[in-house]
């Protein structure tokens, strides 16, 4: 999803943590990412699988609401209700949520509590983390009951130093949001997988950010950029807490408009890696359009997800 411009009491940190599946999936390493990755490369895969294993079937699947953006614009609460009725267990709001008043956010939270659907994370424009906006970002995410505040996009950059600076900015945002019990995340697009000055920007971000900064993997854009989602998950154990389950077709006329399971993604391999070593806490289906209307597309993608995941 590209950057887009355009409800009830706040949860405590304990409540936020309890809203996600518990176990060994969510813990972050206590030492540097560089050190951890170096050590993990020397460990047998089986050992790492024990360290980050998640019980199969216990991981919720949600919908990134950019997938139903026109419906959401017309009727936000009705759309969330419709998504829950399909069987989705979570939603991820994107940039326009930031324009809500507290009353609107609390009303949405009330709806979500009534129908039993969660919002584990939001997608945010880069400037939502600015000094001017970060307090507002924090407050809205607390109202919605989120755990992660994810930067949805950053412009492609010509130099590795620019990507390192982005990592510094994510770390600074993480420091500001941590006291509220919120974690920062970063969502990749295709540019992060294409080498800049001999190195992929995604690797720079992984090395430059704190272990508490979630690397939200977008499968479709990873594939378009020439990346290998399974290899990336295995190289970053415990850090891939959330995955955007978006397929991709090599046919440029279809690309991201292919339905889940109809593209080239190795979903069985992705799920196995995510749940054995990746530390995945929740999945999010995302669709940028298809040959069907938005809500029908979302329903069909959930069916495809369940078929590929074995009924999750």
Describe this structure in words.
The chain has 312 residues and is α/β, with parallel strands linked by helices. It has one domain: Divalent-metal-dependent TIM barrel enzymes (TIM Barrel, Alpha-Beta Barrel). 42% of the residues lie in helices and 12% in strands. The protein is built from 13 helices and eight strands. Strands 1-2-3-4-5-6-7-8 form an eight-stranded parallel beta barrel, surrounded by four helices. Helix 5 runs parallel beside helix 6. The longest helix is centred in the middle third of the chain and has 18 residues. The chain starts with 12 loop residues before the first helix and ends with a helix. The N terminus is likely disordered.
Q: What is the secondary structure topology, with strand pairs?
A:
Blueprint: H1 13-18, H2 33-40, H3 45-52, E1 61-64, H4 69-74, H5 76-86, E2 90-93, H6 102-115, E3 118-124, H7 134-144, E4 148-151, H8 160-177, E5 183-187, H9 201-208, E6 214-218, H10 219-224, H11 229-235, E7 242-245, H12 267-278, E8 282-285, H13 294-309
Helix pairs in contact: 3-12, 5-6, 6-7, 8-9, 11-12
Name given to the CATH homologous superfamily: Divalent-metal-dependent TIM barrel enzymes
Low-confidence stretches: 2-56
Q: Which CATH C-level class is it?
A: Alpha Beta
Strand content: 5-15%
Query: What do the pLDDT scores average to?
Result: 86
For the terminal residues, how far apart are their CA atoms? Answer: 24 Å
Beta strands, count = 8
**Any idea how many domains?**
1
Proportion of helical residues: 40-55%
Number of helices: 13
Q: What general form does the structure show?
A: globular
Using the CA coordinates, give the radius of gyration: 18 Å
CATH architecture: Alpha-Beta Barrel
